[in-house]
Give the backbone structure.
Amino acid sequence: MDKKAANPKAPTEDTLMKTVTMNSSIFTKKLLIILVLTIVFGTVTGYMLAKRGGSETLTSEEVSSSSISKGTIVGSDDTKIFKDITEGVLKGGGINGEGQFHLVRPGGDSQNVYLTSSAVDLSKFIAKKIKVWGETQKAQHAGWLMDVGRVEVLE
């Protein structure tokens, strides 16, 4: 009896062997075009987002005392480091060697915030009502000592 007749579902040599063709290069023209378009599109999008308007943050060197007006923002945008925020009128002088400036806030002298800053030249903001972002420092005499990283002029 024939083997094919005995088991009709048995595979034959014809169905087991298939020829497979492979491209010699992994980069086809389509893939190359897609990659180039993606890079160009990403570059253009990044440029457009970088140039998009918004509040402009300046450095201390870019601001003079005469050019300071309401809405001027100077300093860092890093709100992870400079997460403490307060506002008041800036005056010169610290307390017992702590801080070079202080913010006068409602409630009297006990509410003053003493300030230092290596990021912003605070002397340009004396007698202005400002909002500051900073990092609270350990103090021995000041009720609140802050290292300022960003200033916004309120009035």
Remarks:
- Residues 95 and 152 are 24 Å apart (CA to CA).
- The mean pLDDT is 80.
- The radius of gyration is 34 Å.
- The beta strands are 57-58, 73-75, 84-92, 101-104, 113-116, 129-137, 145-153.
